[in-house]
Amino acid sequence: MTMFAVRPGGSRHLAGTGTLLRFALRRDRLMIPVWIAVNALMVLSMPGTLEGLYGTPAERADLIRQVETNSSLRAMVGPVFGDSLGALTAWRVGVYAGALAAVMSLLVVVRHTRDEEESGRQELVASGMVGRRASLTAALLAAAVANGVLALLVTAGLAGQGTTGALALGLGIAAVGMVFATMAAIVAQLTESARLARGLTAAVLAAAFVLRAAGDSGTDGGTSQAFGTGGGSSVPTWLSPLGWLENLRPYAHERWWVLALLAGAVALQGGAAYALASRRDLGMSFLPTRPGPASGRLGSAGALAWRLQRGAMLGWSIGFFLAGVVYGGMTEGAADLVGDNEGARRIIERMGGQSGLTDAFLASMIGMLGLVAALYIVSSVLRLHGEETSGRAEPVLGHAVGRLRWATGHLVIAFGGAALIMLLAGLGFAVGYGRETGPILGACLVQLPAVWVVGGVAVLLHGALPRAAMAAWGVAGAVLLIGWVGPALDVPQVVLDVSPFGHLPKLPGGSMEWGPVSVLTGAAVVLVAAGLAGLRRRDMST
Amino acid sequence: MTKAITVSGLHKSFGRTHALDGLDLEVAAGEVHGFLGPNGAGKSTTIRVLLGLLRADSGAVQVLGRDPWTDAVEVHRRIAYVPGDVTLWRNLSGGEVIDLYGRLRGGLDTRRRAELVERFELDPTKKGRTYSKGNRQKVALVAAFASDVDLLILDEPTSGLDPLMEEVFQACVEEERDRGRTVLLSSHILSEVEELCDRVSIIRSGRTVESGSLADLRHLTRTSLVAELAGPPDGLSALPGVHDLDVRGHRVRLQVDTDRLDAVLRSLTESGVRSLTSTPPTLEELFLRHYQGEAAESDRAVAR
Questions:
Q1: Structural domains in chain B (count)
Q2: Residue B2 Cα, gap to closest chain A Cα (Å)
Q3: Chain A residues within 8 A of B91 when measuring between CB atoms
Q4: A229, containing H or E segment
Q5: Which residues in chain A are closer than 8 Å to B127, comparing Cβ atoms?
Q6: ipTM score of complex
Q7: Residue A16 contacts residue A126 (beta carbons within 8 Å)
Q8: What are the boundaries of each domain within chain A?
Q9: What's this model's pTM, rounded to 2 decimal places?
Q10: In this structure, are residues B125 and B135 in contact, taking their beta carbons and an 8 Å threshold?
Q11: Which residue segment(s) compose the domain that B45 sits in?
């Protein structure tokens, strides 16, 4: 008792943090290891792959010259700072590994902060011997543990290429993770909804990615300056934490002070999150919920589905349009690419096109957006799962609403929405690039059958194997990984063929092939039909 | 009398768990039927089968003369359902949800909606997550009572309501009955059941253990007697239906199955009765007896 009296509001603020941390790590015992493993595998498989592609000094010199002269390539993967295998690895996957670590971190932090409050679980937890700051601390520590393990794996795995560079890359990736962990901690104080907190933090990450891309495409960076002696990234790159990671320059005269920049950002954001958290009540937020109308106009299950999904739909639409504008603006420079290096040319070709490097650039960018659209369709289809497991579907289905009609409302938004965002991306390209609008729109729309197949798999999982519905995320992730990293990894065609995106015609530039497009569309229809048939026949889970 | 709900021999398993094990239930049209049982007895599972959300493994189920699995939508048109734990969409106001539910049932009576919002003292402009448990419950109750249906299925609908609102709820249920509607009410609040229900069904471990009017059920239970006798009691322990007999000198306490009361009284008067208190079974006793598992029953049998 005296302790409370003597130290009012003292160290007891952290009471229970250890227990909560262990609990958080136990709840995430599958999620965190999978994220770490995928990320580490991507990084650690790089040296071998790059060795195969750029074995000789001549080939590497060639590659570096390409990156110097080609702004779109720099936009995609950033500038090269050295020609060692380590430096090339850091160049090729550093930013992507940092982005993956960021996604993992923001998911972990929001899950153990705002998610807990929103669901009401936090109330019961907080009523125990738990300090006011314990939950936030435990969430940040869980993210720190995850990022720390990742840093350790990357450092140990790349030590063969040089310990210093490996340490720099490992710490850099982990630090970017923590920047977004603390960012998520701030956003979680602002919004009342975990979904919105995740969305906003992810939007910041996307902006960081776009800023870095724009900054790197605009300047020739340090690339030409005899590796790391001079040159600097442009302002947009320096505005992005992902740009900082790049400027840490692992394996190319590491600039350790950049790490201090990252650490400073973590400390600052963490402090802000704690300050915000201490100024609000449990479950409340700084962006409070406004009252709604006393009576509503919603009159059907379809209208309800639209009402529930329109916010996300708007966000995705804006994002895809802007991405189109930015990538469209970068297209011009793609023509500069000098394809002397067979390996690099092969990558670009396998990622996208066969003829015309501008077309190849467009095709690979549009292909990338198609892959991201697969994430949209999975999130949209899985709304069904969320509605069902949260118990909100039950009263709706207790009315004169058939299951098919209930599901159809959401599926129209999922499958039609995918078409809408790809169309908007195409319009964005038209704005940013201004040429070939017709073929670009066609290329955007031709991604849809593959996107729909992924959506169809999600519908099938939800309908036939509701307990495994979340595996649809795994499917989308695998497709994304195959499409994103696969071509650079020289993986066998059999693996590339697993992804529906591997069968699409390479547009613009290639010739339209109706065969695979029709087959994929047919497959999507069959998957959706099978999923709906399963949904009709099974028990609703509660 | 026509039946609103008939269930016979209903089985439902989830993996190795047998949630329902041959359950029977009959609800006559126009009655308020209490649906009782301890936690985990299978009440909510039964209700989900009645709503066609779960498919019965075996057994016959008819709701308003139809199969709720195959004709779910048609059946639902004439049903209003209130779950015990109402979950709302965080970004929709209570009013919007009430109107949505009303329209999904083919329209609701706006005058009645306004009146109910008033009576339940609900603020319809607040949004999902900002409602307390009781207020979320009110949203579902207003939507249900304001709609024009034949059957209300209420699964612990008053959890979280304050006593005043509980009274409003009971008045609403009585109005529904007066309009000739059928109500299936699952509840743990015994006073509510006693006040409202014409008949009750008690289930345990997925099986119906008792069904009938409250008067019928009372008849099946025990009356407590305390008697001061003129002489020592004789042969009481040998009488059938006597339980927990406790004799101290001339003072006798016992419980007797209500249908065996006659013989016990005769035996007592033979010894000469100075005073006699008889306590009819309380509702709690009645339920507790049915709620207790077979293990408890046999324990008592051994202890006797």
A1: 2
A2: 23
A3: 193, 289, 292, 308, 311
A4: none
A5: 289-292
A6: 0.72
A7: no
A8: 14-287, 299-542
A9: 0.80
A10: no
A11: 3-217
Contact criterion met (CB < 8 Å) for A298 and B125: no
Total count of residues recorded for chain B:
304
Contacts of B72 in chain A (CB under 8 A): 397, 402-403
Reference A486, options A31, A49, A56; nearest CA is A49
- Looking at the DSSP assignment, which residues form a beta bridge with residue B185? B34, B154
Measured CA to CA, the distance from residue A210 to residue A236 in angstroms comes to 9
CATH number of the domain residue B193 falls in: 3.40.50.300
Nearest CA to CA, how far is B53 from chain A (Å)?
5
H-type helices in A45-113, by residue range? Answer: 46-53, 57-69, 71-77, 85-112
Chain-chain contact of A291 with B125 (C-beta, under 8 angstroms): yes
Tens-digit pLDDT string for chain A (542 aa): 444 444 444 457 888 898 899 989 988 998 999 999 999 998 998 898 888 878 888 888 888 877 776 666 677 778 888 889 999 999 888 998 999 999 999 999 999 999 988 887 887 777 777 788 899 999 999 999 999 999 999 999 999 999 999 999 999 999 999 999 999 999 999 998 898 999 999 999 988 988 888 788 765 444 444 343 344 577 888 999 999 999 999 999 999 999 999 999 999 999 999 999 988 877 778 877 778 888 888 888 999 999 999 999 999 999 999 989 888 887 776 655 444 556 656 666 665 444 467 787 788 889 889 999 999 999 999 999 999 998 899 889 988 888 999 999 999 999 999 999 999 999 999 998 888 889 999 999 999 999 999 999 999 999 999 999 999 999 998 898 888 766 656 667 888 888 999 899 888 878 888 999 999 999 999 999 999 999 999 998 86
Q: Which chain B residue has the Cα nearest residue A390?
A: B87
Question: Chain A contacts of B107, Cβ < 8 Å?
Answer: none
* CATH at residue B265: 3.30.70.250
Q: Based on the domain organization, do B92 and B181 belong to the same domain? A: yes
Would you state the structure tokens that stand for residue A536, as one six-digit string?
């009709």
CA distance to partner chain B, nearest, from residue A119 (Å): 9
Q: Is B232 exposed, middle or buried (CB count within 10 Å of its CB: 0-12, 13-18, 19+)?
A: exposed
For residues B236 and B210, membership in a common domain is answered with no
- Please check whether residues B175 and B262 belong to one and the same domain: no
Contact across the interface for A300 and B127, Cβ inside 8 Å: no
